[in-house]
Amino acid sequence: MSLFAKRLQETQTQGASPGQPQRKKDHSFDEILDLVRARVREMELDGRLLQKPTPETRQALETVIRQTLADHQISIPLLEAETFYQRVLSALVGFGRLQPLLDDPEVTEVMVNGPGFPVWIEREGRLWTTDVQLSEQEILLLIDRIVQPINRRVDQFNPYVDARLPDGSRVNIAVPPIAIKGPYITIRKFRQALTMDKLIRFGSLPEDVVPFLASAVEARLSILVSGGTGSGKTSFLNALAAFIPPDERIITIEDAAELQLQQPHVVPFEAKMANIQGMGEVTIRDLVRNALRMRPDRIVVGEVRGKEALDLIKALNTGHEGSLGTIHANSPADTVSRLETLAMEAGEALTSQVLRDQIFGGVHMIIFLKRFPDGRRRVTQITEIAAIKDGQIQLADIYRYRHEIDRLERTDHIPSRLIALAESFGKELRL
Q1: What's 95's DSSP letter?
Q2: Are 216 and 365 in contact (CB under 8 A)?
Q3: Of 331, 297, 311, which Cα lies nearest the Cα of 217?
Q4: Which residues have a Cβ under 8 Å from the Cβ of 82 and sit 6 or more positions away?
Q5: pTM across the whole model
Q6: Which 3 state secondary structure label does DSSP give 343?
Q7: Could you please report the per-residue DSSP string of 128-171?
Q8: In the CATH scheme, what is the code of domain 97-188?
Q9: pLDDT digits (tens, 9 = 90+) for 182-212
Q10: Which of 16, 35, 123, 167 has a CA that sits 20 to 30 A from residue 100's CA?
Q11: In the CATH scheme, what is the code of domain 196-424?
Q12: pLDDT (tens digit per residue) in 10-19
């Protein structure tokens, strides 16, 4: 039995004495809605039809509403009937009172922080509160609607789950006991991929930097896009990967599929969580290893955040140059340190010196993004992994953001290593 069904059953049995008939009473809208929901559940409709209903589904639900009212001898004034039916129908399909927020093109995330608390949204990179507050039953119903089509379970024994909506939006659900204030839902809306032209218009980087980035990708430099949470790493990676030539075989590997590459030979993979029996997990590391057997020209990893770091480093040193990925870090220097730490977690008997040598050999450039307090996302550094000296990797900024002029500017550094690497592939960097 689902969380919603259990809670509804508890609600319906509270306050009733055994064997005592309930007297007829006026029904509130919420009570009528619960009766209709119970009837709808008996129909065992595919949850995807409730998320995105067809005209036939809507017509069937209207019939259920009318029949439920008749069965319980509930009358609705004729002048109010059509409005009432539409109100019930709106609660049954889509995402109820969250639907207007999800339909708003300017809203990028929707956050439900428990029953009775305001729903928050992200718009233009900033968080805003709304006047929407959902009841526990509303939240549990939405959770059922999300997890039922993907055959997943969320309860006290499996208190969190990741899912994807039919439109590609990503959802994280958490319930008690780990969710202290009640069930939580976080929806990251699917967005059309940002192109480099759009990033320029949004001010993420100046137009005169783009020829250099395009030539770096074409020259098969291996690049990591790094930054903090919400800095726009995946969006930038998608725009950067668009410079990969169309005649190359690209394998993308993601924890949750977000990349939208338009080249004709793209082979996408998505990691898989274990089922409720703890079986069937496929990790990013598994997918990186598998990709090496598939004759890739490029490997694009949505986010490097675990043991797969070692496999990616090895791949970059064994003929898979020009691969791309993102990594969570606080600076270019921290990017290198974090990559080393993640690779060490793989448990292989490698010294720090050996790992640093391999990082230097395999990774050529870091693009660092930062999210500012006002919600703006900017490229603040483009950094060459320039040398390794006395066991330490040396970095040098090619471009650096200057706060006083709000612009990414070219430095005096000549990236001689990158120039030489590009020339080895018969390419020229456009600095």
Answers
A1: T
A2: yes
A3: 297
A4: none
A5: 0.78
A6: helix
A7: EEEEEE--HHHHHHHHHHHHGGGT---SSSS-EEEEE-TTS-EE
A8: 3.30.450.90
A9: 999 999 998 778 899 999 999 999 999 999 9
A10: 35
A11: 3.40.50.300
A12: 544 444 444 4
